[in-house]
Amino acid sequence: MPRVLFKKTGDTFTCEEGKYLLDLCEEHNCPIRFSCRAGACGACVIDVSVTPEGLNPMTAREKRTLETIGADLSKHRLACINRVLNDLEVGDATTTTSERARATGIRTGFEAEVVHTRHLTDIVREVTLKLIHPAIISFLPGQYLSFTIKDHEHIRRSYSISSSPEDRHRVTLCVRATSGGLGSNYIHRLEPGNRVQFDGPYGEFILNQSSHRAIIFIANGTGISPIMAMLRHLVDAKAKQKIQLYFGLRHANDIFYQEELEKIAKALPQFKYTLCLSQPFPNRWDGFVGRVTQLIEKEIKEVMAKTHEAYLCGGQGLINDSSKILLGKGFSEEQIYHENFYS
Q1: DSSP letter at 42?
Q2: Are 171 and 128 in contact (CB under 8 A)?
């Protein structure tokens, strides 16, 4: 079996080939911190320069995260998504971004019961969980939870909370079914009375509650989930600033949360939303036709960079293209928030 040496402590452990390095660390209380457990935040970056062949080959996702946090691709890897294949020596690693992520630390483990489910579309399901132990949770609007998939103890998936943080006894998830996806299929099979385990909350894609700037939300698909948590919080907080949501979907029968958005618009007179359909069926849609990025290119003006901030959530293409548009219109990087979890 592979032997893993932690140079910081001098401890050596053996493990089964193919075991996730982070799981090994948790079992032996080793000094590797983490946050997202999904290869997105960079908190668990480690130095494996002595024996890089001890881990599985680097994926494009891991490479993107390491580049984002300024890590050295020749020696740094992410513990949470890498399996131990051969003997390995683990050193320490430090980058500005990863240190900030490390500070979030290890979060609480929860047990909860499914109390309500509903299909929002044929492939999008909403699941509401009531906390059992601990009985309450504290999170910031925009954060997410990490689930251990039943019957797959080493497989974890992360899902954003779509409910308001003001309800500390329940959390709601909005999950899209993915072909062959162990995590999404697990969530979609849950029924009232089932119990689940998760830990969290995680994530730095959170609403800047100290800001009084006008808000632009840009989302596609289930990227709307953390933004719904933000909007619901803004309703609870009786927010006064202008808020605009651009929500991109493909077909008319893909639309969900429209009734909820109408209720939010009534509760917050300064809130407006626009649905964008990229491939609507003929004669079934009289709204904007095209990608959401085409609409924001048209509607967002340079003068808005002085008074607005933007929150982006969806596919990597949406995040990259929207960021480019906003930067081109004078927004600074500090005014653009996005979630790497969806990349």
Answers
A1: -
A2: yes
Residue with tokens 């891991």: 62
Q: What Cα–Cα distance (Å) separates residue 146 from each residue in 47, 98, 173, 265, 301?
A: 25, 19, 12, 31, 38
d(CA 156, CA 341) in angstroms, rounded, equals 13
Q: Are 117 and 175 in contact (CB under 8 A)?
A: no
For 108-202, which CATH superfamily applies? Translation factors (2.40.30.10)
Is residue 8 exposed (0-12), middle (13-18) or buried (19+ Cβ within 10 Å)? Answer: middle
Other residues' Cβ atoms within 10 Å of the Cβ of residue 250:
15
The C-alpha atoms of residue 310 and residue 213 are separated, in whole angstroms, by 10
| Comma-separated ranges of CATH 3.40.50.80 domains in the chain | 214-342
Pairing of strands 308-313, 336-338: parallel
Every domain of the chain with CATH number 2.40.30.10 lies at 108-202
Domain with CATH 3.10.20.30 in the chain: 3-102
> Is the domain 3-102 a CATH 3.40.50.300 member?
no
Pairing of strands 3-6, 88-90: parallel
| pLDDT band at residue 343 using 50, 70 and 90 as cut-offs | very low
b/e code 268-299 from CB counts within 10 Å (16+ = b): beebebebbbbebeeeeeeebeebbbbbbbee
pLDDT-derived band at 126, boundaries 50, 70, 90:
very high
Third-level CATH fold of 214-342 = Rossmann fold (3.40.50)
Does this model's pTM top 0.85? My answer is no
Q: Is the CB of residue 161 less than 8 Å from the CB of residue 172? A: yes
pLDDT 10s digits, 181-201: 788 888 999 999 999 999 888
Amino acid residing at 181? G
